[in-house]
Each structure stands twice: as structure tokens, then as C-alpha cells.
Predict the 3D structure of the following.
Amino acid sequence: MKTVRTATLAHGKQSQIMFADDLKDLSVHLGNYGRSVLWVFDTNTAKLFKQLPPVAVVLESGESSKNFSSLERILSTAVEEGLGRDGRIIGFGGGVVCDMAAFAASIYMRGCLLTLVPTTLLCMVDASVGGKAAIDFKGLKNMVGSFYPASEVLICMDTLRTLSDKEFLNGLAEVIKHALLSQDEELYKVLITKKNEILARDADTLIKLVQLSLDVKRWYIEQDPTETLGIRQMLNLGHTFGHALESSSHFGLYGHGACVAWGTCRALEAGSVLGVTEKAYAMGATKLFKSFGYDIDYRIGRGDWIEFREHLSKDKKKEAGKVLFVLMEKQGCAVLKPLEMQLIQHLVIAKPIF
Amino acid sequence: MKTVRTATLAHGKQSQIMFADDLKDLSVHLGNYGRSVLWVFDTNTAKLFKQLPPVAVVLESGESSKNFSSLERILSTAVEEGLGRDGRIIGFGGGVVCDMAAFAASIYMRGCLLTLVPTTLLCMVDASVGGKAAIDFKGLKNMVGSFYPASEVLICMDTLRTLSDKEFLNGLAEVIKHALLSQDEELYKVLITKKNEILARDADTLIKLVQLSLDVKRWYIEQDPTETLGIRQMLNLGHTFGHALESSSHFGLYGHGACVAWGTCRALEAGSVLGVTEKAYAMGATKLFKSFGYDIDYRIGRGDWIEFREHLSKDKKKEAGKVLFVLMEKQGCAVLKPLEMQLIQHLVIAKPIF
């Protein structure tokens, strides 16, 4: 187990990001925590264990578990098992499991210890690092939550082996988003030159990809841990359009990453139309998404517009009541701007056939 | 409206503590917040308004409202009304209302603005300042919550006029606790010399009492905002015994302050028995509590011991599984110590009649 990155996050807390050599290395480290530990799995990651640890909560896999009822299940188990404030909650799974474990840890006795073991590419490069935890509420994504960085994030590439292609692409979309936001072009170049190795899930290439991706994320969040300075918000590139699509398609018809890929391309288009984004840059980035097979040409039906607009208006990035979108200027440079509703409609709705 | 104290609390956030001249002064200040505001009342404080503000949640008064269901009611209303991350939740009431408003504000969109208007003496000197918010869970007090200081705490002595004597004494117990923990004897002396003025609720005396009390609280919390250094925990004097009594009597048979008064006297006794507390000091402090009419000689029945011990064991102040008690050495000096179960039993149980 190697500590390869230390990120200083919300409230000055530090997250150690550690890479395990293999599953055995991972389990030795986890075993060292001792007894005062509560594990959170979902029905997928629970299967990875022949025998579950004594104190464990297994959530139904999927976004629908990101709710108050799952939260109460974890907290109840913590109380029943007499977990102390110096006890530890371990989230072992994808974004839903890590979000639930982190949110529960942040409020159990006003904060206990937290370790996250992300088992999807999406969670490795996104949810597990950065200290954001949340549940969905009233049909809206991540409406209720907290900032609570894990003290340790343990990454083991072996856990990616059983990931479906759809899940893998979900994560890759966030990696591409990070490549656009990066202050240098290294990650962008790896994505172009190592496409085949990435899709074949070559371990060394993936480690490189995850580390570079986390470096970008860290660059933004260390400057603005609780998203109050307008810097961290740039990581929401593609998420305003993306979340609205994800919400209107009832969480899961399209995966989070696929929606972010779609949303990023809509933001690139919007930027091009407004003269904010360099046209050549927008085209190159769109091509990169396409090369990995994302359905970025998808458009919503006219009948879905009202619901889509409704979800857009609930976005958390607001100023004076207007939703703000992250638009790219060029590599590594993004700005926050409101968009006219007419332009949004033009970008997301299927053109009428006659 | 005068800002009389600024406290730097959890995560470097500042709370402005402001005293209003009268209800009119208070309402002018509250009116200036504009529209993006959600109010939280309880059935008592809602009565103080001829007409409630347009966006308001009214909780049933009492400890039983400190639960997930009230939390969800506040959050639902916030979503329905489209409150933004730059919106404000105002808690107008006692400890329960302020705790619920603060906990909701801390997790709504991962944190929105918060103003607290404490309307009980207890809440003025305790819950409203310091950034601790929590709900009860599984029958245990304050098991789930967060650290989230209000940006403004507005105190208006006029709101104390309708307080019952029992409620008033609930708050006074925390004031006396602060007097013991103070680095000087000013507050202690006011309590002895101004007893009649205090019980008659003379406004000037009460302002003095609240300000001195908050100075003590601030001295402890500014050094240790999230209670990780063993300093802020001293403010829990009387609370380990007190919470166990409050929990076993099902929250409310005895008020919080009455339980804290009782618990502080048990801690003074424990310290005397162990030679930790100066005997003369313990006697003086016990006499001070008695002079205000607290039932500090109360003992639990033998049959209630198991439940009491169970609640004690759930206390959050634990080290290596052992519950820690705050014991006084002398004026302003406290220490954390585990106590033998036999001694605790001896201190809290009614002596057998034969």
C-alpha cells in the first residue's frame, strides 16, 4: 500500500490517497483498523466477500439507495453496535456506497472516522476524493449532504475487473472532463494516444489515468474546498446539463458519466455559439468523447422539455436566481455564465421533423 | 441592534452575536433579510406572530420534534420553495427549534445561510452559540448532527417574558455551570449577589448574565471548535450524568437544565470522593444550585439503574470504550476522567430503606 497523494480539503482535513498493489494488500490494510468499524456495501460489492465483516450494512445497488432511509439504516447499525466517535465507517463500493458512508460518518455523533474504498472508475476519480457527500431528495440529485473528506481513500485496480463496460465509460467521462480542465495537456494526450490500452483496462495505464485525474481534481478543490470561491465549481463542467438529463430520465436510464459526457458537449456547443469557447478546441474535445463511444448526439423529445427545464432550475449553482453553467474558454480555462433559456432549448431538444 | 460579541467557531466561521433593544428592533433586522428565507418555529413561538412569514415550518414544541421527520419537513419546504444555497434558514425558538434549523441549514445543499433567534434563556446561553446541531436518534440525545455555527445569533430579552419558571430555571442551570468553568469569579459573584434580580428577571441583570455566560462558552469553544482537543468537552460538565437522567426519564419528565444541575452536583460529589475536587468548592457550588431551588438531592430508583447505566454507556465522550466524566478541580479548572461503575451507582441510586 503506497500513499501517493495527500489532499488538503474542507475544514483543513487531509485525505490520504493510497494505491494497493492487489486485493490482498488492500485487505491487510483494512484488517489493521481493528474492531470498532462499520462497513457499508451494496449488493454488488458484498458479493466480493466470502464472508461479510461482522458489522455491515448492505444497500441495494443503484442510485435509488441514496436516500434518508439508507442513511438511517447505517446510523441505526452504528448505534446498535455502540460505535464510538473514534469508530470508523468504511464505504466499500461505487459512488452511492461512498456517498452514503461519507454522509453517515459526517453526522454520526457529529463526525466519526471515514475510509472510502472506491470500486468503480467513476468513484475513484470523482466521489471518493474531495469530501462531498450527499443524498438525493424530492427527486433531485445531491440536494442534501455535507463536506466531509475521508481520512483515507484506498484505491485497488483489481476491483475494476468485474465492472461492466457501461460502468467503466461512466467513469471515463469524468476523466475526460478532468482532461479538459487540466492546467497541462498530459491527461488529454494519454486519452488520445492510449485509447486502446484504456478500453482494454490495462492496469498501469489506468493507474496513470486515475492519478492524473485526481491531480486535476485536487488542483481545483484545494483552492476552494467548500465551493464558495467559484473555483471548485468548474469541476461541475457538464453537470448542469448532465444532472438535468439524469434527473428527468429518473436516475439511471443513462448513467451519470454518460450524462456528464453529453452535458459537457452541450456546454462546449453553448460556449461556441456565444464565442466563449475556441471553436477548434470545442470540436477536438467533442471528437474525443465520440472516440470513446458516448452518445453525445442524443437530444430530448419536445415533450420532455418542461420536465428538463424544471430540473435545470433546481441546480445548486445559482446567482440571483439564475442557474450558472460552466463554459470552457480553452484548455484549463473555464468560466461560470448564465444561459438564455432559448439557447438551452435549442441545444437539448430534438429538432422537429417537419 | 448591537453586535456585542464575535465568536470564531468550527471551520473558521464567525458567529455575530447581536442584542436587540426590543421586539421591534429585532423584527426590523429580520425584515432586512429579504425574500429568500425559510423560518422554523415551534407551536409556542409561532403564537408570537399575528401573521406567520410566507415560508414557515411550525414544529410541535418539545424534545420529541428533534428527529429525522422534522428535519425532512424543513428540507422539503426548502426544496418546494426553491430556496437557493444563498438562501437563509431562520430558527426562531428554543433549543429544539434552533437545533433543527441549524442541522437542516448545515445539510441543505451542503450548507445554506443560518440565523438563530433563541427565545429561551437555555438556548441563549447554550444551543444558539457554538455551532453544535443535532437530533435525537434511537432514544439517544444528540446522536446525529453537525458543527455549523449560525452567521448571526439575535438575542432579544423581550422574548423571555412569557417563559415559565421551569423553563427559566432550565437555562439558569447552564449559567451556573458556566460560572464554575469561568476563568474568573465575576459570573459566580453575580449569581450570589443578584439572586433576587435574576429570579425577578430584571432585564439589565439578565443581559449581564447572558453576556458573561457566553464569554465563558466562547473561551472554551474558540480553542477547540470541533471538540477534538479535550478543551471544549469541559462544557459538558454535568451532562454525562444529566443526559443519562434525561434519557432514562424519556426526555422531559425533568428539563435539560434541571438534569444538568443534578448532574453537575453528582460530578462535584464524585470529584470530592476521589480527592479531585476541593471539598469547600464542591460544597459552595452545590449550595449555589440549591439556592435557586434545583432538586439536586433527587436519586433514581434501584429499578431504574440498568436503564440509566445503558444510557450512560452511550455517551459520546469515550476513550478506549470508557465513558469520560468532566470533574472540577477548582474554579475554572476541570479534568476528564473515567469513573468506576460502583461509584456512579453509589452516587445516583436511592439508598435502600433497609
